[in-house]
Design a protein that fits this description.
The chain is built from two helices and eight strands. An eight-stranded antiparallel beta barrel has the order 1-2-3-4-5-6-7-8. The protein is of the alpha+beta class.
């Protein structure tokens, strides 16, 4: 009887140790800072991006690649001062580690052609299937209607 109790106690302890080790791997890492810069040429895809910050330093995200526009939907009146754009972009890492899709809600100033936006990661492939994150974007127009310099800042994990 004592041996049976010992075996049960050892089994229960092993289950707890297994659960503790498994749970520690499941708990999400704390969000890391990310800063991404893209020279966007309007109406094209495949522009280069450069990323930096603790998310890159810690290997959560690649440092460079290209970005493609997947979908752009406009809303709001073009007769006003602003236009809202709902944009889906795919970031493709140069190091072949995977891709990640980012959804943006962009406010385009029709006078200056500059933009502000909120963004969030929707999905990913390869190393980025579990990627989560969000942040803000500031776009500065260099050549109105032709190019804009987008700067993404935020947190990912």
């Amino acid at each position: 009887m004592a041996k049976r109790v010992q075996t049960t106690i050892v089994s229960v302890l092993l289950v707890f140790v297994f659960l503790a080790v498994t749970a520690s791997g499941v708990i999400a890492a704390p969000p890391r800072d990310i800063h991404i810069e893209v020279d966007e040429i309007l109406g094209t895809s495949g522009e280069n991006f450069k990323a930096e910050g603790s998310a890159v330093d810690d290997g959560i995200l690649c440092a460079s690649g290209t970005v493609d526009d997947i979908n752009i939907v406009t809303s709001g009146s073009q007769n006003g001062k602003f236009l809202t754009l709902h944009v889906l972009k795919k970031f493709i890492c140069d190091d072949l580690s995977g891709t990640f899709d980012v959804q943006l809600v962009v406010k385009l100033n029709l006078t200056t052609r500059n933009t502000t936006a909120n963004w969030k990661v929707l999905s990913g492939t390869g190393n980025y299937t579990q990627l989560k994150g969000h942040g803000s974007l500031v776009g500065t127009t260099f050549d109105p209607g032709v190019s804009i310099y987008d700067v993404y800042d935020g947190k990912i994990h």
